[in-house]
Amino acid sequence: MGKEETPKTSGETILVSACLLGLPTRYDGKSKRSQDVLDYLQREGLTPIPVCPEQLAGMTTPRDKTFFQSGDGRAVLAGKGAAVSEKGRLMNVIFCRGAKMTLEIARLSDCRRALLKEGSPSCGVHRVYQGENKVAGVGITTALLLNSGMDVISEEDLK
User: Fold this and answer.
1) Number of domains making up the chain
2) Where are the alpha helices (DSSP H) in 47-155?
3) Does 1 fall in a domain?
4) Residue 88 is part of which domain span?
5) Is the bond preceding 7 in cis, omega lying within 30 degrees of 0?
6) Angle 140-147/92-108 helices, nearest 10 degrees?
7) Is there a domain that residue 97 lies in?
8) Is the pTM of this model over 0.90?
9) Is the pLDDT of residue 3 over 50?
10) Residue 92 is assigned to a structural domain of this protein
11) Residue 143's CB: how many other CB atoms inside 10 A?
């Protein structure tokens, strides 16, 4: 009889995009539940702190799709980029508000790492959307978390 592998119990907290945990927080009111994420959290003994920066900023679910018209999250934080809704509304201020609230939750819950949804205008880690095109870049929340010294990975980094 083989010895069962027991999960680590580090107790370490980690910010996780709520949609990856199965919560219906995406712009379209759906989730993007990821078994890879759930398995990773259990295997590493991590305590997830679910966040949705867009909901934290006060946006409804569902909500208009948002993408970068220019730049990415780093550019928006520097005052040089533009995140716009599908209806053409500039979303920089509200997305920055959600990013700041997410960073505050990280501080309050002692998170030093985050596991976020790839491609999101808030949470993208390696790529974001400029219009319909996927481009290299980071979301607004990811940029702020990285600037604060946090380690950030996406669900795609677990594969």
Assistant:
1) 1
2) 53-56, 73-77, 92-108, 140-147
3) no
4) 13-158
5) no
6) 40
7) yes
8) yes
9) no
10) yes
11) 24
Q: Which pLDDT tens digit goes with each residue over 80-133?
A: 999 999 999 999 999 999 999 999 999 999 999 999 999 999 999 999 999 999
Count of C-beta atoms within a 10 Å radius of residue 126: 16
Tokens 């990773």 appear where? 40
**If you compute the radius of gyration of the chain from its CA atoms, what whole number of angstroms results?**
16
pLDDT tens for each residue of 55-70: 999 999 999 999 999 9
H and E: helices and strands count for the chain: 5, 8
pLDDT band at 8 (very low <50, low <70, confident <90, very high): low
Amino acid at 19: C
User: Within 13 Å, how many C-alpha atoms sit on residue 155's CB side?
Assistant: 20
109: left (phi over 0), alpha (psi -120 to 50) or beta: alpha
102 vs 80: CA distance, rounded Å = 22
Location of structure tokens 């295997």: 43
Q: What percentage of the chain exceeds 90 in pLDDT?
A: 92
CA-nearest of 18, 49, 19 to 31 is 19
